[in-house]
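User: Design a sequence. Structure:
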């Protein structure tokens, strides 16, 4: 029996199940197995498991009679007195069952029943722990880093979670024992075996980090309107204040940049642009292209979400960004396809026309220019927006 209780304790620890709860599940499984072995004694079987006294026994409650017993549910008074001298006809006595005689099938049935119960307990525990935290940020402890695949095992309140390579910020390294923040993107397999999916690259991780650092966001005074992100490189976040006396951008930056620096530190130095949201798309698009200066923004098509932006020639590269990153992030942030043009065509020396609200870029202006001309760019607001640089021809 010593081995049984040792195995019971280990099973409880492995599955994060309390001993009392586990004992009840074992009792239930053993009852099912005993009822198969003693089908006529279904309501008379008792199971006793006491981890303190290390006692594990099963009994059949026998009725004491003064006649010949017809089955295992009865016992003659003379036999009963050999077990208990105080036995009387009409009373009951406990007959211990030899568990070793259950047979292979009964033992296997009990084992499968316990496994099924443990799976259900684990499922409920995970759902109870994480369902309310779905789409939220949690702090976890790094417990193991797998060198080959790069998968990081983390611990959250006794539950192991896995941060896969694709969900890690490129270039970041992890040390065992360190604490990091992750975003719960969802919980898969809720009806069977729940899998908690976590990420460091999801754009909403940035939103949750600002909620932690900026009380005005948490309290609902400042609202995060949209976010675009290239994890590990740059994030643009558009904010708006419901209170005219509260500066949304200033609240996110904090005194001496303390709030934004805390978020940047958690993201290992990722650059963050905080932009004031505007209900006027022309104004919002111009701000989204920061740090570049924008001279003019015209909505070409509201239905197709297309616009044209004119910037000073010396700001064109800044507006586009390295490999088109700044323009791509601005497009994702605003939801508009942005066509960025220089103020002066370096090939012809022509200044960009005075744009009116109904201005539409003619097809001829989108085609060829001199090779020395600065590249133009069309940025799609779709997730996989691609940069197309149209080099001029002579």
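Assistant: Done.
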């Amino acid at each position: 029996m010593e081995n049984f209780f040792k195995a019971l304790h280990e099973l409880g620890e492995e599955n994060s199940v309390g001993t009392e709860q586990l004992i009840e599940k074992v009792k239930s499984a053993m009852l099912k197995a005993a009822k198969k072995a003693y089908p006529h004694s279904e309501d008379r079987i008792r199971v006793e498991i006491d981890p303190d006294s290390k006692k594990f026994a099963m009994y059949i409650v026998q009725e004491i009679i003064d006649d010949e017993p017809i089955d295992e549910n009865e016992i003659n008074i003379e036999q009963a007195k050999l077990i208990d001298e105080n036995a009387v006809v009409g009373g009951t006595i406990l007959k211990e069952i030899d568990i070793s005689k259950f047979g292979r099938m009964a033992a296997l049935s009990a084992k499968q029943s316990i496994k099924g119960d443990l799976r259900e307990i684990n499922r409920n525990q995970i759902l109870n722990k994480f369902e309310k935290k779905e789409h939220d940020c949690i702090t976890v402890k790094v417990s193991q880093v797998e060198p080959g695949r790069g998968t990081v095992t983390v611990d959250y309140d006794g539950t192991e979670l896995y941060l896969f390579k694709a969900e890690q910020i490129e270039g970041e390294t992890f040390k065992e024992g360190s604490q990091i923040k992750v975003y719960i993107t969802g919980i898969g397999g809720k009806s069977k075996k729940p899998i908690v999916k976590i990420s460091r690259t999801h754009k909403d991780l940035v939103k949750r980090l600002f909620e932690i650092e900026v009380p005005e966001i948490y309290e609902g005074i400042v609202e995060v309107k949209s976010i675009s992100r290239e994890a590990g490189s740059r994030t643009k976040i558009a904010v708006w204040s419901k209170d005219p006396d509260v500066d949304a951008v200033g609240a996110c930056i904090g005194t001496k940049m303390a709030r934004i620096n805390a978020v940047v530190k958690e993201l290992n130095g990722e650059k963050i642009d905080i932009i004031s949201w505007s209900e006027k798309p022309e104004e919002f698009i111009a701000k989204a292209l920061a740090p570049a200066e924008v001279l003019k923004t015209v909505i070409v098509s509201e239905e197709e979400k297309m616009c044209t932006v004119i910037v000073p020639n010396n700001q064109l590269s800044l507006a586009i960004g390295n490999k088109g990153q700044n323009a791509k992030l601005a497009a994702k942030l605003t939801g508009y396809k942005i066509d960025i043009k220089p103020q002066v065509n370096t090939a012809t020396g022509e200044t960009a026309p005075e744009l009116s609200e109904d201005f539409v870029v003619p097809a001829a202006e989108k085609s060829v220019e001199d090779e020395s001309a600065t590249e133009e760019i069309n940025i799609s607001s779709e997730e996989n927006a691609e940069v197309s640089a149209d080099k001029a021809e002579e």
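The CA atoms of residues 67 and 344 lie 116 Å apart. The first strand starts at residue 45 and ends at 50.
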